[in-house]
User: Fold this.
Amino acid sequence: METGKVLFEKNADKRMPPASMSKLMTLYLLFERLRDGSLSLDDSFRVSVDAWRRGGAKSGSSTMFLSPKKRVKISDLIPGIIVQSGNDACIVVAEGIAGSEEAFAEEMTRKAQELGMTNTTFRNATGWPDPEHLMTARDLATLAKRTIADFPQYYKYYQQLTFTYNGIKQNNRNPLLYKDMGADGLKTGHTQAAGYGLTASVARGDRRLVLVANGLPSKKARSREPERLLEWAFREFDNYALFARGEQVETADIWLGVVPTVPLVIDQDVKITLPRKARREMKVTVSFQGPVPAPIAIGDKIALLKITAPGQTPIEIPLLAGANVERLGLIGRLGAALTSILWGSAG
Assistant:
């Protein structure tokens, strides 16, 4: 989650039916409006007959068991979507925000593009089968990460285990929530075309992992396979903090400057995720053409920091001048040139 490192992928960019994992975007758009104040948890939406008919128990789909022509609070619709996976609740939210589910699906697709989910197209708010309603595992991971990062005040809903509405109690279908492994979200999905899917997140200490799996053959596989992959990831990988923003990494010699060296600083925190075994063979090098001629201004790109480890893509980060360095005056430059000629000094 923190470094963006992909630990394992298989068909990550294959477009597939996401089933109810689509509801992550339905909730994302709802959370946006709660955050900006255009809606509040105490606001309510009316349940249309269409939402009741297409998303209710008679449709044979996951439902919150809403009553037609009644109003329901947003504070109930959120767990109704997350815990009960209510298609009726999703349609109510879509109609309440955009006027129609079709218009809301268009907004969902636009938001996906804005978030960098370039292989996603929504045709409804629920994940109901549609040949053009498609996502990728990578896009679902992006959406999960943005949900966690953008809405910490609402993300807590995803770990709710049960919810009762209209006297009917239902359990959260995320199997990882019932295991002692640090899971706190997000959403399951299942249709005949999609198979069994899960977008999940697990936090332990200062580490958080995000996982997306789809096309699994059974509920049992949806419980076991994600757990196995997450345990492997926590066991075999770790995060390593190498540098803090503003930290001096090295110094560079200066040619014809009022001082002989300039500090080289990094303008970002550097934390990387590596296999624990690869960490022992990690190498950090700094390269630049020196001595660096004066004058130099703070922030000038002077050098390149390179981090390498076996089996890992090299990481390159620019290093910047940490101080202003003026050029020597004429007499100073002549003296430096003479010193260089006589003694081979570059300073």
Observations:
- The chain has ten helices and 15 strands.
- The longest helix spans residues 219-236.
- The domain at 244-343 is CATH 2.60.410.10 (Peptidoglycan synthesis regulatory factor (PBP3), Domain 2).
